[in-house]
Amino acid sequence: MGLSPINTIFVGKNDMEKIPLFGFMYRKLHITVDRKSLKSRSTTLIASMKALEEGKSLVIYPEGGIITKQPPAMVPFKDGAFRAAIEKQIAVVPVTIPNNWIILPDDKLILQRGSVHVIFHEPIETKGMKLEQVNELKERVFNVIDNELRTWNS
Q1: Cα separation of 80 and 43, whole Å?
Q2: How far apart are CA 102 and CA 71, in angstroms?
Q3: E strand or H helix at 42, and its extent?
Q4: Each residue of 47-101: pLDDT tens digit?
Q5: Which residues contact residue 101 at a Cβ distance below 8 angstroms, ignoring those fewer than 6 apart?
Q6: Among candidate residues 91, 94, 88, 78, the one with its CA nearest the CA of residue 131
Q7: Residue 1 pLDDT more than 60?
Q8: C-alpha 119, offset from chain centre
Q9: Model-level pTM?
Q10: Are residues 5 and 11 in contact, defined by beta-carbon separation less than 8 angstroms?
Q11: Residues 87 and 128: beta-carbon distance below 8 Å
Q12: Alpha-carbon dihedral sign for residues 74, 1, 95, 139
């Protein structure tokens, strides 16, 4: 995702800050969140909305750190990214990394060899959507990614 040609800011867990050198740069360039802290989650939402207002794109992993027990099957998405998209009336671009679960498995700290494939799907518009439609938007994005995962991993 770091190779995206678009001006993007990552929203990710603050554990990344602990990685020597990389962590310092990550904290300075991106938005970090301590998922256990309500205050941190609130601050992250505010910083994310500000970044969107500045015309930046956000990269958010909507599973929110929940690890699936049966990769590549996904777990349900959290609301935050979709609420922000509807509030700002901006499109969501689903992205599938179909073999990420092989190259970067949840249960190991070691990267596996392999080619990384990144698929940027067609944007899903939110213009005219209301916050009551968050679940509908989440489901649409989930289905796009899930269908691509099934195609690649069948």
Answers
A1: 12
A2: 9
A3: helix 38-53
A4: 999 999 999 999 998 876 667 788 888 999 989 899 999 999 999 999 999 988 8
A5: 71, 72
A6: 88
A7: no
A8: 14
A9: 0.84
A10: no
A11: no
A12: positive
